[in-house]
Amino acid sequence: MNTEEKLNNLRDTIKALESVVVAFSGGVDSSLVAKVCYDVLGDKSIAVTARSETYPEYEYEEAKKIAKEIGIPHLTIDTSELGIDGFAQNPPNRCYFCKSELFGKLKVIAREKGYKYVADGANLDDTGEYRPGLDAAKELEVRSPLKESGLRKADVREISKYLKLSSWDKPPYACMSSRFPYGNAITEEKLAIVAAAENYLRSIGLRQFRVRHHDTIARIEVLPEDIPALLQNGKRKELVKKFKEIGYKYVTIDMEGYRSGSMNEVLTQQKEKG
After folding, report:
1. Which helix (H) or strand (E) holds 246?
2. Which of 62, 81, 206, 271 is the most exposed place for a label (fewest CB within 10 A)?
3. How far is Cα 141 from Cα 119, in angstroms, rounded to an integer?
4. Which of 20, 25, 3 is CA-nearest to residue 121?
């Protein structure tokens, strides 16, 4: 299918929803869902962003900007993942607790405001990864228009570019909780340290990166082609100095480079050994 045909399939899927509350993070996936929902359903759609300890201010400001660009009504609610029983202990199914809380609140909003469905930004590629949050979405009957339309991540970017959405080439973003090894308790203090470290990497012009938090050690993941830039022109000393000021004792660069869900690699290894 060409881009227009893919978009029309998505439009048809969304039209059948009639009215919808979109779980809106401002990422490339939820932005496309919000855009097409508003184009097709108008004011029978609303985007809702949840602010929490694990959602940095930078991403929230981006979400507000993109919602304004789309024109969709935008509502902000407050959540606290660290207050959810079982979440802060950081088990492998941590995302299940978070999504259950989020989608539960969005279902209440939908019911109170008269919207028929809650929709998320899950796409077909997500079903091939370890994503406990998908179980929560299924239990709470959350709709996934991108996945239901057979769209993969590349299709989402293709259609977003076609629609001239500014988010079309936005780097993937994951909840800040994904920066911690499973079983390593998550606290506001640790989240603040990681956020400060990632803000620094963003300030020096990097777009795709993660700072994985291993207690006193920062494991920096950047694209392989960006690794040399961190080692040249005094950048290495500057980075180490900044990260130590933030609170790390040791600063490392992961030679494998950035990869989505790298904390899940230990789960795969345990499964293979078991």
Report:
1. helix 235-246
2. 271
3. 9
4. 25
Residue 208: is it exposed, middle or buried by C-beta count within 10 angstroms (0-12/13-18/19+)?
A: middle
Specify whether the CB–CB gap between 103 and 20 falls below 8 A: no
- Give residue for tokens 């999504």: 99
pLDDT at residue 272, rounded to an integer: 47
Give the pTM.
Answer: 0.90
Q: Tell me whether residue 98 is one of the annotated catalytic residues.
A: no
The string of pLDDT tens digits covering residues 194-242 is: 999 999 999 999 999 999 999 999 999 999 999 999 998 889 999 999 9
Q: Is 38 helix (H, G, I), strand (E, B) or coil?
A: helix
With respect to CATH, is domain 3-162 assigned 3.40.50.620? yes
Residue-wise burial string across 111-135, b where 16 or more C-beta atoms lie within 10 A, e elsewhere: eeeebebbbbbbbbbbeeeebbbbe
Contact 121, 143 (CB under 8 A): no
Token pair recorded at residue 139 = 């239990």
The amino acid at 189: E
**Active-site residue among 37, 95, 98, 175?**
175
CA distance linking residue 224 with residue 208, whole number of Å: 10
Contact 157, 169 (CB under 8 A): yes
